[in-house]
Amino acid sequence: MTSTQDATGQNDRYERGLALLQHIGGQERPAVLDSLADIAPDLGRITVEFGYGDILSRPGLTLRERQLATVGALAALGNAAPQLRFHIDGALNVGATRTEIVEVMVHASVYAGFPAALNGLTAAKEVFATRTDLPAEPAAAGAPDGDRFERGSAKLAEVDGHAGEQVIASLQDIAPDFARILIEFSFGDIYSRPGLDLKTRELVTVAMCTALGVAPQLGVHIHGLLNVGGTETEVVEVLIQMAGYAGFPAALNGIGVARTVFAERESHQNSDV
Amino acid sequence: MTSTQDATGQNDRYERGLALLQHIGGQERPAVLDSLADIAPDLGRITVEFGYGDILSRPGLTLRERQLATVGALAALGNAAPQLRFHIDGALNVGATRTEIVEVMVHASVYAGFPAALNGLTAAKEVFATRTDLPAEPAAAGAPDGDRFERGSAKLAEVDGHAGEQVIASLQDIAPDFARILIEFSFGDIYSRPGLDLKTRELVTVAMCTALGVAPQLGVHIHGLLNVGGTETEVVEVLIQMAGYAGFPAALNGIGVARTVFAERESHQNSDV
Amino acid sequence: MTSTQDATGQNDRYERGLALLQHIGGQERPAVLDSLADIAPDLGRITVEFGYGDILSRPGLTLRERQLATVGALAALGNAAPQLRFHIDGALNVGATRTEIVEVMVHASVYAGFPAALNGLTAAKEVFATRTDLPAEPAAAGAPDGDRFERGSAKLAEVDGHAGEQVIASLQDIAPDFARILIEFSFGDIYSRPGLDLKTRELVTVAMCTALGVAPQLGVHIHGLLNVGGTETEVVEVLIQMAGYAGFPAALNGIGVARTVFAERESHQNSDV
């Protein structure tokens, strides 16, 4: 746990972090360092060492997954437009497509409301306008065919399984229309869209719910991520990453939810034996 | 639960939603559709179908009430200035007065703090400056006469009844001054103001508390809305509407609080028999 | 509890508040009053009477402490840039240094994430650029020497004591790396920095956790503030102050957490006898 620090006060965490920040940001000299140089140069160093050298360098998630999770969380929080633009650009630099980024914003309408989605798309448009280097992508999907309720029910079962059914059942006595709306809109309209694979969609959902601090839904969607192919390691990685974008309290409270979910699944497996 | 979809991919949800969006927004061609046309046209369609065709078209609240609830929630969240301006304008288009909108912002000082109130008023000023079509309104109220504590205590009893008294009692051992401040400022200064009727004030309070995710206060003010003439249907409607502006987790957690409050009132009524 | 109101509708709360607002804001005629004059003059009056005359005039915290707490809370919320700038300027007017304000922003990276810290520093730079009247301050600290984990562990023990150890222990089964990261970054890198004394750091932490509504961490850091020399009165004062900047629900929920912490400490003391 000691760091190797050279004569310039830099160390391997700094060098590893700087290389990663250069890669994600697509800049030889990261703008964040210049912007902090005259007011808080230490925070520039810490951003490189901790944010990029420690956290984003961790294995367990691809850089594309990490950037899409960050984009989702910042869009959901809705209060950090400069960083949202930076990480949209960064997502494009590590393999995410414009379509995936648009889908993250559309997905935010479910977890943070339409204003968050619309303002996220405004940020995306601003970034996309600067990126004339990107290849053409297929046009966005049209309205899916078929019945929204049937499609939504199937998707809800696929993603949230038993936990999702419980949410729906719990609404029947008080707001049955809202149960129908949740299935039709959230799962029939949004979760059923192409353009972002289901596992990444749930990863982004976990990031959004962690950043917003909505514990019950975070529990449902940690189950969801595990249901659609995610691993406990991936859950923990996205929670740790959120410490840097929404603060340690958000990450710690998310870890508490994950502990409960993991225990539920372990106990459920054991009872199946 | 199937939709009628015509050859252009539109359906009755779209047509109903578009007519309502045109009415609220006061624009033949809603700007949100143009803004999304090149990046996420599906979200434009979904905004019309879901946001306006499904949610805002529901019975149970007037459009004026719905718009004032949205204005309150967006002012409290403080992170969606473009949408706040749009919905202030929309509130004026469906019968809300400038005085009512100002009062919603002043009310936000209690639930989201003075910065939220001040920034909400800045948005209101920007919108009002574009609306030379509106009739003059009476000048704002001056300072109410009389004792703030007496006036606040009476208003607290009227709105929050037993739940409000419990909050005050619970503060006596730890922060008795804060109990007095809460009565004098929140209820003596703000709740006692003219310009926004008490039922709408509580409806807006429920919207704000749902958007902010403050469950204990949401419970107190669901009681409050029911105490001043609101119905359980109106409570559920404003909670459902918040799904579109603060996300489904906020709405679902609000429904959970409402279930508890409705059960408390049912059990209380039964014990009175 | 009656107010003395003179012929102009003003009273001692107004006069006391106006004098304090002039002092903090450094303006003979506060801009907030002009900005509200044509839209909500009552809110201008209430801001003076309640915000400054009632709350910020209270004893129990210095104005420097109060302003740094407000700066921390607004930086953490990240949705009120005009007020953040005003209160940074105000902090400078009542004795806080630029270094302390920078440290509050750096500290925000732990509790609200790096975007909050970066945007807070942008606001600080904007304010500092207008303040050519301030004396030079020593340059910012460089990277501390020594092992981050050892330094962090010692600082965690100093600040959070038993509550902090419990947090770390609870992470061992699910995210042991995150326990190490929390110690190394939060306590080894940030809490160990010079430029802001430990008691003020914890006071700002309590303000941030109250504004963000993260109850478990608020509990840990109310303990922390009391562990590093703060008093129960100071805890209550900063919670009351947050009513004005994050709303009464945030303050009330914070008071609930404080009640539990105070009782824990009382019971612990009694069991020591």
TrEMBL record, chains A, B, C:
Cross-referenced SUPFAM superfamilies: AhpD-like
Entry GO MF terms: peroxiredoxin activity
Coiled coil: none
Domain Carboxymuconolactone decarboxylase-like, first and last residues per copy: 41-126, 176-259
Name of this chain's protein: Carboxymuconolactone decarboxylase family protein
Organism: Nocardia colli
